[in-house]
Prior knowledge:
The protein is mainly alpha-helical. It starts with 10 loop residues before the first helix and ends with a helix. Helix 4 (66-76) crosses helix 5. The chain is built from 23 helices and no strands.
Amino acid sequence: MASSKALDGGWGWAIVAASFMAQLLAYGSPQSVGVLYPEWLHTFQEGKGMTAWVGSLVAGVGLIASPVCSACVDNFGARPVTVFSGVMVAGGLMLSAFAPNVQFLIFSYGIVVGLGCGLVYAATLTITCQYFDKRRGLALGFVTTGTSVGAFIYATAQNELIVLFGLDGCLLIIGAIALNLMACAGFMRPLNMPGYYLKQKAALERNTEEQLLDKPPLEDLKITTGSSTTAPENSITVKELLISTDAKDLAVHTETKKSCCLSGLVIMKMIKKKQRAYTKYIFSMYEILQDQAMVAYCIALFLFSLGAFPPVLFIEDVAQSEGLIEEVSVIPLVSIGAISSCVGKLVLGMLVDLRWINSIYLYGFTMFAAGLVLFLIPITKTYVGLQILSSVLGFFSGNWSLTSYITTKIVGIDRLTQAHGILMFFGGFGIMLGPPVVGWFFDWTQSYDLAFYFSGTCVVLGAFILFVLTLPCWNRKNVEKAKSDVQYTSTCEKVISVA
């Protein structure tokens, strides 16, 4: 077993490379869904609002389920979770090739692929944070560029595959490519043993000691007394039983296996034990949300996701609706935004490692700048202008690489998975609502102008809330309140504390 100390290098860079490829394979198609969106509109002849649910769900469902995904990573580890997510992503993409209508596509592409992406995201970020400490910002910047590079490659590739093999053939091919997620999982060597394996190991050791101290019944051994094979057969039986059963529950089960009525007590005991564990987990989430900076960050991420994600889905349709271009260009606007986002993630990841830069204020600045860009999209009437705005918006949207870093700064590495799950829930909820709202605005007004003004307002408002609620004066008030709550047992203690 590897050391539990963050390595800041060595095998950690193999983890970064594997996580980069995992995010590229999982998020390549969902991040470039804007190329598929016009094809679905033409194929199924549904409204823009209804069809937009496909793209919003594939990006939002996985993030909304982040608390569950984080719990899976905590219990089973990054490697098994990534293998399972490969099955989900590949299966969902291949299933989407046979979709008869938008409703089926919402399930196969939006929900199944979205959940698989959420598992990949939680697994890759968690294991990267475990392997890095001093260079965490740079490592996370490299890992999260996988989504942007994937979007850049897949946007062009899907466009060409649709021309060559049609929409169905395109989805089948990229689904087969997504199976390589299982190969990426092989590199994710756990730095710390997951909770599930620790529990089984403790159960194995505890029950082995009990079996050595207590003489087992002869009928369970199924051998004669005095046989030289007694100890080996007994030890094998114990290990096989312990893989699937907790030690204490096994002892109770051995005593009551002939009484069917008492077996219900064992089940109730196991249910109560799980209930206590989940109650403790939920209470720890409640404690995390008591932090004002964490609450401000959750609100800001929700508003940013609500306003800044729709351009990824609609920017190609905006260009076609305004008559700026007849069909998707050789290098789509989605690809331009994706490669700019890749650069933004690397640059912001390096900046946040500098001691004199406040990571929360840096994130707030990127939000404010992205909001201004959204205000400019409706008044831009040239395709070159949209290309420039897509690149600038993509650069500032690279602030997603800062989420894990800022979360660690607020709550610490011990609560990272839980806090990150809560944060991604708010982000996923905003992503899920954004595109349908923009689509409904278009169906209502037959124009994207009002929709993008709404999106820009949401993003700027989120930046303002983040700046205000994380001002140093709030921390000063909390410190003074904490000091006022301290009870002194003598006058000397009070004088020393004031001094």
